[in-house]
Amino acid sequence: MTKQKFVKIYCLSLTIPFLLLVFPLFSIANRETPFIIGLPFSVFWVIFWIIVTFIIVLFLYKIDPDKDEKEVH
C-alpha cells in the first residue's frame, strides 16, 4: 500500500466518527431515551463512537506501511 493511499484511508476513516460526535450531527443521538446498558442514549452514542474510533486506529496501525521502517539518524 502506498503512503498516499494510507493517508487517504486514515483521514476518511477518522473523520467519520469525529463528525458523528460533533454538533449538528450529534443531534441524531441527543435524547434521553431509550436506555442502553443503563445509560441514556446520548452517553451510549459517545462511548460507542470512542470505542469504534479506537478499533479503527488499531486497524490503521496494523496496515501502516511505515511502522516497520527503523528510524535512522
UniProtKB/TrEMBL annotation:
- Cited Pfam families: DUF3311
- What name has this protein been given in UniProt? DUF3311 domain-containing protein
Question: Which species is listed as the source?
Answer: Halobacillus litoralis
Q: Which InterPro entries match?
A: DUF3311
Kindly list the residue ranges recorded as spanning the membrane.
7-29, 35-61
Alphabetically ordered keywords of this record: Membrane, Transmembrane, Transmembrane helix
